[in-house]
Amino acid sequence: MFARKISLMIALSIAALTLTSTASATTIATYTDLASWTAATSLLTSMNFEDGSLANSAVQFSELGGGLNAIAVIDTTISQYWNYGTFKAAGVTFHSIPLPSIHVHLSSPANSFAFNVFSSGSNGQTFGVNVNGTSFYTIATGLPNAGPSFFGFTSGTTVSDIDLTIPGGVLDTMAFVDNFRTGTALVTAPPADQTPEAATFLLIGSGLIGLMGLRKQIMKNKSALQVTPALSAC
User: Fold this and answer.
1) Would residue 86 count as lying in a domain?
2) CA separation for the pair 177, 234 (Å, rounded)
3) CA 159 to CA 106: how far, in whole Å?
4) Strand, helix or coil at 38?
């Protein structure tokens, strides 16, 4: 009976720890600099808009709702308010409410992507990033001489749609995105700015509880075996 209990507890503990490893590999991570994202990713595609195109075989940029001007590739060097040292970038002017979104569709879904964002007309706006319509993140932008902001993302599941907007933004603000990249996330140690999913903590706890229960049962059985010979000798 004891052997069966031990076998069951070992099996449950191994299963929980195995699932924990799997969950760790699928944990979403965000990155604030290119070097960290590059270290966690195998690059697939890159777009810097210098050819004037908003699409390639893997990625298409468009605008969703709100704006009077359609998204376009803009030469940012023609204005000091747009010039973040990025040359050409995809941009849209927020002329009306609801504010438009820069919509990115990945015809070749990837589990890793990254890009730069910046704004003008009302500098220092905060971008919202909606991934697959379910996960929402924010990116703060600064003045032109501060350079564009970076956002990187990796996950164990693939991404097909990304929407960038400026929630609560000021009208006539221009939103820009540049240096868009996609890649394959590498299974490596979590980066410093990674936020584990709740399921990861749950599975880790399950595995540890199982191992603690196993240790307690072994110690209890060991004590019983030490007492039995003494009783039989009386």
Assistant:
1) yes
2) 85
3) 7
4) helix
Domain of 116, CATH number, reads 2.60.120.260
Amino acid letter, residue 67: G
Structural domain harbouring 104: 26-185
- Distance separating alpha carbons of residues 193 and 174, to the nearest angstrom: 29
CB atoms within 10 A of CB 104: 25
Distance CA 90, CA 127 (A): 15
pLDDT tens for each residue of 160-194: 999 998 876 667 778 899 999 999 999 654 554 54
Pair 196, 27: CB distance under 8 Å: yes
pLDDT tens profile 30-85: 999 999 999 999 999 999 999 999 999 999 999 876 555 688 999 999 988 888 88
Is 143 a domain residue?
A: yes
